[in-house]
């Protein structure tokens, strides 16, 4: 058994597995959002505004889920693919992103996190807008907007490239389908859905990395993937 069908180059086994995975993530996201927003927490979400529930999950996702969703936010597909490429091409010392990200998280946690939580800010722009006014806040929003657009594009592009290599599916189609699933569960449950689906996805990543070698040898995927990667690189 191979990862690609001889007729059309698409691994329908892989496509089926990805669709099942997406459905599981969608169900987790919708249920998490529904449970948290409808039932609510017995303590810290009481009195939370709709914006707080949607953007920061009512400040009540807990330490463990918070760690998982922070890892998922920073260590996305673009980060993983880009870091791997730089290390392979230029060596470990030239991979600057992991060091820069680590320093920024430490500085942010030590200098900003406690104060921003106490003052119930929702974004990094809020304290500057409070201090310097709405015009400065609006001006600072522009680089944040363009940065997020480029970051989202990098993540979706990495997703499309990965799916194209693994299952032979068109990368653009994979990006569109994935974005629709993410938009749907985020629309239903807000940050609650995002946080709990991050937990599920990171668990799947760890299990996949641990079991890939054995499963790949069994299904013959390792050889096919190496061949696809070589073809993509040429």
Whole-number radius of gyration?
20 Å
Distance between the termini: 25 Å
List low-pLDDT spans.
1-7, 222-230
Order of helices and strands: HHHHHHHHH
Multimerization state: single chain
Strand content: under 5%
Number of helices: 9
Please give the number of β-strands.
0
Task: Kindly state the percentage of residues in helix.
Answer: over 70%
User: Could you say which overall geometry the principal axes of the C-alpha atoms support?
Assistant: globular
**What value does the average pLDDT take?**
75
* Main sheet makeup: none
SSE-based structural type? mainly alpha
Domain tally: 1
GO molecular function: choline:sodium symporter activity
Subcellular location: Membrane
Keywords: Glycoprotein, Ion transport, Membrane, Neurotransmitter biosynthesis, Sodium, Sodium transport, Symport, Transmembrane, Transmembrane helix, Transport
GO cellular component, one term: plasma membrane
State the gist of this model:
The protein is mostly helical. Helices cover 79% and strands 0% of the residues. The relative contact order is 0.17.
